C-alpha cells in the first residue's frame, strides 16, 4: 500500500507540474509586446550621429545602444512597404548611402502613412544592430518596433 501511495503522489506532482508548465507556455506564446509609445528612451540622437558612432567603433556603439530604446531625429529618405504591408522608415542624410532603418510596429502602420520623404521626424525603437556594407558604400543601423514620436 505504501508503494501505491507513493506512485499516486508522484503522478499528482507530475500532473501539477504539467498543468503549470502548460499554462506558462500558453501565456508566453500569446504574449504581446508592449508599445514603445510611452517608453522612455535611453538615448536621444540624430540619425547621422548614430550612423557615425557605429561606423567609427561598432563594438563600442553596440555596447552603448544594442537592446536599448533609442529616439532618433532625422530626415526621411524614403518610406518602404514590404509585400506583407509592413513599413520601414529610412532616415539619414540624402547624400549618403548609410541610413537608420526603423521597422515600424505593426500597430502603428496607419499613422506612418502620413510620413513623407524629406520631412523631419522623430522615431523611437529598439536598436538591434548595425549592418555594414562589405563594399564600403553604405551601412544601416537597425531599429525595431518603432513608433512615431509626436512632440
Characteristic key phrases:
single chain, 151 residues, alpha/beta, OB fold (Dihydrolipoamide Acetyltransferase, E2P), 2 domains, five-stranded mixed beta barrel, 6 strands, 33% helix, elongated
Describe this structure in words.
With 151 residues, this protein is an alpha/beta fold. The protein folds into two domains: 1-31; 43-148, Nucleic acid-binding proteins (OB fold (Dihydrolipoamide Acetyltransferase, E2P)). It contains four helices and six strands; from the N terminus they run αβααβββαββ. The chain has helices at residues 2-29, 47-56, 58-65, 109-112; strands at 43-46, 69-81, 87-91, 99-104, 120-132, 139-148. It has a five-stranded mixed beta barrel. α2 packs across α3 (58-65). The chain is elongated. The model has no long low-confidence stretch (mean pLDDT 88).
What would you say about this model in short?
With about 150 residues, the protein is an alpha/beta fold. The protein contains 4 helices and 6 strands; from the N terminus they run αβααβββαββ. It has a 5-stranded mixed barrel.
Number of discrete domains: 2
SSE string, helices as H and strands as E: HEHHEEEHEE
Question: Biggest sheet, strands in spatial order?
Answer: 2-3-4-6-5
Largest sheet: 5 strands, mixed, barrel
How many strands appear in the DSSP assignment?
A: 6
